[in-house]
Write a structure and sequence with these properties.
five-stranded parallel beta sheet, 3 domains, 334 residues, 16 helices, alpha/beta, 54% helix, single chain, Zinc Finger, Delta Prime, domain 3, Rossmann fold, binds zinc ion
Length: 334
């Protein structure tokens, strides 16, 4: 693996390579971007490029020297990855970093610390880290990885070089899937769309053997839901589906993308924007029976449910309400 293997993050990679070329590597970075867009992978490859013993003229790590090998096996002592323990990064973890970082590395090399999911640092941990970020040893590089910087101290942010990671084009994800995995073209097309810019998600969907069965079952069900077709058996069906799907977030996302696609066909009619690329004909039919107003209402309500879920609101109640929206009871009674 090397920088070349990073998909769709040319801009971020070029900034890092330029700083290496010009010998202006920053002592601290924040890599920011959605889940699964390659932040951690890039941080590790950056560490490899900084530490490799046989770096070539294009600044490519050899991937075979002693250090590259150790980094690949995650046992290089001068690269540490700090991650949340039980959903938070605690002050003890940062205290340990502070103790270690002061021990000089071997043979004038760099010491690199990657703090993954940095937004999960407790406030005490953040304050403790701030002291190191304010006065880092010359040989140290700290990389914070996060989805957003909302919960990171502004005093930390202001001392770090911010590197943005973008959502990846579905065409690039598709190409990577076809090159790396023996996947049918239509499946690669569908997965690249469902991944919504995250290569990590694409691989996760492929490795989850049951995902496509769960999706198919739910889409079959959604296909049967029609505006004005109110049937009390559907409540029983909803419950069945809720029991089957252990992950309500996943279910909501499938429903959201379904109605989003119907709205897009109805309003724009552009096939390329459709995520459920294997269901275009059914979606077209649906776009004729739903009004724009109703679709927007359903989509709004799903967004609301996502907020409700954070507050542990009764799932059954919410699902029933969603179902009522899907069959358009409010619209039919008017
Ligand atoms: Zn090497």
């Amino acid at each position: 693996m090397s920088f070349k293997d990073i998909v769709g993050q040319e801009k971020a990679v070029n900034i890092l390579l330029k700083s290496l070329k010009e010998d202006k590597v920053s002592p601290s970075y924040i890599f920011i971007g959605n889940e699964g867009v390659g932040k951690k992978f890039t941080a590790i490859e950056f560490a490899k490029t900084i530490s490799c013993l046989n770096l070539n003229n294009n600044l490519e790590a050899c991937d075979t020297c002693n250090i590259c090998n150790k980094i690949n096996k995650q046992c290089y002592p001068d690269l540490k990855i700090i991650e949340p323990i039980k959903s938070s990064i605690k002050i003890e973890q940062i205290r340990e970093l502070r103790r270690e970082i002061n021990l000089k590395p071997f043979k004038n090399r760099k010491k690199i610390y990657i703090i993954d999911q940095a937004e999960e640092m407790t406030i005490e941990a953040s304050n403790c880290l701030l002291k190191t970020i304010e006065e880092p040893p010359a040989y140290a590089i700290i990389i914070l990885i996060c989805i957003n910087t909302d919960s990171i101290l502004p005093t930390i942010i202001s001392r770090c070089r911010l590197i943005k990671f973008r959502l990846i084009d579905s065409s690039k994800i598709r190409k990577t899937l076809l090159n790396k995995i023996n996947l049918e073209k239509s499946k690669a097309e569908l997965v690249s769309k469902l991944a919504q810019g995250s290569i990590g998600k694409a691989f996760k969907l492929i490795s989850d053997k049951e995902y496509f069965n769960r999706r198919e079952k739910l889409l079959d069900y959604l296909n049967k839901v029609l505006p004005g077709k109110y049937d009390s058996n559907f409540f029983i069906n909803i419950e069945k589906i809720l029991m089957d799907i252990n992950n309500i977030e996943e279910m909501l996302e499938i429903i959201l993308l379904w109605y989003r696609d119907i709205l897009i066909i109805k309003e724009l009619g552009i096939k390329e924007y459709i995520i459920n690329s294997d269901k275009i004909e059914v979606l077209k039919e649906k776009s004729r029976v739903y009004s724009k107003e109703m679709l927007i209402d359903i989509l709004d309500y799903i967004e609301q449910i996502k907020e409700f879920m954070k507050k542990n609101i009764n799932r059954r109640l919410v699902s029933e309400r969603l179902y009522l929206k899907m069959v358009g009871v409010e619209y039919c009674l008017r």
